[in-house]
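Loading example: each entry is read as three labelled lines plus one structure line.
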Amino acid sequence: MQRVPDTDTPGSALLSVRGIFKSFGTNAVLKGVSIDLLPGEVLALIGGNGAGKSTLMKIIMGIYTYDSGEIYVDNERVEHNSTKEALSRSVYMVPQEPLLFPNMTVGENITMGFDKSPSELETELQAAVDEIGWHLDLSRKANTLSIAEQEMVEILRGIMRHSKVLILDEPTSALAFDEVKALFGVIKGLRDKGIGIIYITHRLAEVFEIASRVCIMRDGIIAMAGNVSEFTRDDLVKGLLPPNAEKTAERAEKAARSIDYDADPVLELRDFSGYGFKHVNLKLYPGEMLGLAGVVGAGRTEMATTVFGRDKVLGGKVLLNGRDITGLSTKKVIAAGVNYVSEDRFCYGIFSLRSVAENTTSALLGGKRIGSFFLKRDEENRITQSYVDDFRTKVTGISQDLGDLSGGNQQKIVIGRTFATNPKVVILDEPTRGIDAASRGDVYAVLQELRQTGVSILLISSDMEEVVELADRAVTMYQGRINHEFSKRDINQDNLMAASFGAYHEDGEDA
Amino acid sequence: MPEDRTKTVEATQTKAAKPGASLLSRITAGQGSWNMLLMALIIIEFVVFGAANPKFLRPQLFFTSLNDSLPVFIISIAVTFVMITGGIDIQVASLVGLTSIIIGVAWQDWGFSIWGAILLAIVVVVACGAFSGFLIAYCRVQAMVVTLGGSFLYSGLALIVSTMSSTESYQGISGFPDAFKFLGGYKFFDVFPLQMAIYLLLLVIAFILLNKSKYGRKVILSGTNPRAAEYSGINTRLTIMSTYMLSAFAAAIAGILLTSYLGTAKSDLGSDLTMDIITAVVLGGTLVTGGRGSVIGVALASFAIGLVRFGMPLCFKVSTQYPGHPHRNPADRHHRWSFSGEQHQCRD
Amino acid sequence: MKAIKKILKARESSSVLFLVALFLVVGAINPSFLSTANVSACFNTSVVYTLVAIGMAFTLFIGEIDVSVGSNLGLVATIVGMMLRDGSNLMLACCVGIFIGALIGLINGWGVAVMKAPSLIFTLGVNGVLRGLMYLVAGGAWVENLPKAFKDFSAVTAVGDLTVYYCGAVLLAIVIHILLTKTRHGHNFKAVGDNRAGANLVGINSTRTMLLSYVICGVLAAIAGIIFCSRIGFVTSTTGSGYEMKAVAACVLGGISLAGGVGSVLGPAVGAVIMASISYLLTFMGFSSNYDNAITGVILIVIVVADALIQARSAEKNRHARLAARVSDDVTADVAAAKGGE
């Protein structure tokens, strides 16, 4: 049920973008996006992780430049080269992570950057606060605010600017039920005043509650668009999936492996709770590749890093082959046999200024394999070279700086580091994110090879295709909890996508 | 968050495309070539100073005068470790004085043997380094501020210790046994000071420690990307704290040698060395943001600075004295032996 | 009243209270301290530190630092001193001095804001160059024989026993504080230091703001140098060395964070008084001056550690709250949402 994207002429729209292309280096994020926003409507924009929603919004706000295309505000062609320009055209984006000034008060935060006199601003601010009906203490410091309150402050900024176009990027991700209700009331009020609102969300239910039109973004294009009344939930879910979803499922059948599910699990999480996730029960069997799907913010990374000793355990247990490794330090967790590849290799993975060899062996410094006091350079080089060869990593030599390698090759090195510690369990967090297609295939090949060695892998991924292709079994997390488990035969992109958005029906009936 | 993802993708792409984009990191990326530059600078200094005043090149005078820069040489090697972790240590200068006065007071007034006094001084000073290091690594207090407070505290402690002596603090404690003065005074073939040899030994040890040992690797990785180091199972906090103990130890050695060389223990020895030390470390190619540093580079840089300190007054009559040194400029007569200059202005 | 509550809660108030407590303690131990002359002396001696600290505060607000202020002060003191010694007009000498300070500030600002050099390194380099210039200009000799009238003016009092200089400095601090807090662009400095991306997002030109902060810092250091000449009466080859650290200490005592975005200029003013008069106060308490540095160090470390621990605690709390908000309390949330949306 494909729908043709809107082709309204720019004439009637408040904000229009046409044919926006944007690439970061060789990575094409937006491949020709066209959207119209009419006055007095709420346009829901949904899409999986990496679909390009945030990039598009940042381009509209002048934070990023676009490679080609056009932007129109009120029928006028504009070039948003800087944020100030976008602001002057009454376009305001409430960012998903509030960018407040932590050491300033709420009042100061809202009035920051205006060119009016402080007394004028005070009266306007009071008027805006009264209008919204929220009870917010203007003299509180921003760093004492809860996330919900920070969101409200950001929204107030948009209102103060009398924006004609308001972009809300996942505004309810941290709001409680009644706060969401209050927010929707405000949004409806703004909409009735003729303000156009782009509403980005992962929660399909909200689309039906607040939006009048919906656009589905996938892989850098608008896959579907239309009035909300013409869609059902399943339509939305289907729109989020790539077109060849079925084919992938077929291929996966052939690669099925036999896992002994009667054996004791190698890794078990019992009622495991921490910051960002609760009551997780999970079992990982020997030699298994378990997919863990879910949207960003579902709590998968938090769970993994807590297992890895990076954050406090609030409850429950982690058992490795029956041994309790709950709450151990990272060094001890690695020594016990669990290792982790972070989703953010730039922040947590790579030593950019150091060599390939130093990067590969960084996790071995705790043990004796590369020496007790002095470094055994020969051993170090041998280990590094073996991984470079096995993974077919493109390097000029093992002394090359890691920062000079492509993303894909960097990732291979980090994966190599993880496996060099001879773990029993490896947790991979978005291992192919931000990697070009060619390297991606390489990484898959590497993972398949490593599975032969008997290592169990927990594969955290937002790429449904990847999970379908690689996983023996899959679970999904939604809002901090495991909400569904799928056996091999039930793993398909439909189910995973639906469950990730909290919209999966057990009996598979249409809503 | 989708926002963060795009940022990371973008950042990774940019990183892959433009490694070491800033001028500073491009220079230090080629540490080898940077060292060459420093060597060239040193050669130029030899030529210029030697031409201006041939006495500059006389080995006797040359080595004797370099002795004054020895504390900077020694301490800057250790501070390199600190700065590689992204920190900074501006309390080292005060630890030199603390070492000196503890040796003096412990030996003269508390009845320690000279070697016992030296041991005591080392233990106390390294403990001071550990204290500051703890605050920096575990309590996450900024290194600059902690070591700033430390510089006041430890120089103050040194002064207090000096009052525990029967000798007036401005006089300094002397009369040390010859065995002790041997350390700072002996010269091989009457030319090459033993101190210098000790320094070279420390240099070799530091080089091996940084480049050939697991510890050095942990220091470098903790400074390059502390988060990635943590995720590799490295105890970055302990590693970082230990670098402050190293720099304190170096300050202690410098204090011991300086006291031996001058034959006098004073609480304010080394008080004006901080800027030179930091300059030497940075000039040697160490990245302020951490992750890059070279022992050889810092040695060369401190040497270059030492040559300037020695050459300028000799060849161009420009005074660049350390006010804390008794053997230098007669103008020092006017100076009170106080920490960081014009304290006397409080009293008018 | 709300305003009074707000004032009392401010970090600067704790610095003021600390200072007052300090005075009271000293007075309790030695009642002869509690004369207007003695208490005023504490303030009067801090005027140079105060000016340098206020200037330094600007660079700390934006999250950077300026370690060249000491040699800036020294160089200006040297040049102005030489000009006055050789008979120049006072106005001219002051203008020259301030101009030099502004120029130094501009160079520092260019290096940090435009060339994006790390501020510690760049200002350290400038510091070295200025020191060298000082020797060159003065020929390594002291600058003495300044006009008597110029020197005597430093003792002229304005309010009670407080000198004109100190009253002027206080006035300046108050004016700057008002400008920073009440005008529309005054908040820009702390905004840039608090969240540079956020500042750009709301349309603040962070580069221009950073340049301005360094120029202000340079000018204030220069003024401090001129006043130094007047108060001390001569300039040596090491004048000003160490002032940058005293200024940082004064700022930190006054509640400014080296990370940027926090504090006011009133804090450093109080901190400067503490830094300058510690030794004076300790004398009254019967401590010899030997204890000055140690006590200063202890105070500094205690305050800084306390600040850091409090900061870290609230950051952790925020993070945990943020993560906890993402977790649904209702296990069947998705089913409910599915049903509720139709």
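Residues 1-6 of chain A have pLDDT under 50 and may be disordered.
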